[in-house]
Design a protein that fits this description.
Order of helices and strands: HHHH
Helix content: 55-70%
Oligomer: single chain
Largest sheet: none
Strand content: under 5%
Length: about 80
């Protein structure tokens, strides 16, 4: 017994017919996906930059606070 794909009168499968009739939709979907990926990349870089800056920046008010002074080593130059 041989298994074959069902074909229509034009000798096309359902997948081939769908691809032929929806070429413009595929192009629009590809363009949308590229724009979305680009925007997500830009947003993730921005979030990483802000997180990095926030992690390594200590306000001067905290540096002068007595509680913070106990965590910093006393360096004498």
């Amino acid at each position: 017994m041989h298994l074959t794909k069902p074909l229509n009168i034009d000798n096309k499968t359902a997948e081939e017919m769908f691809a032929d009739t929806n070429e413009d939709l595929q192009g629009q979907g590809k363009e949308w996906l590229m724009q979305t990926a680009e925007n997500c990349t830009i947003l993730s870089v921005f979030i990483a930059t802000v997180a990095f800056a926030a992690a390594y920046t200590v306000p001067e008010v905290l540096m002068e606070a007595p509680e913070f002074q106990s965590f910093t080593p006393n360096l004498s130059f």
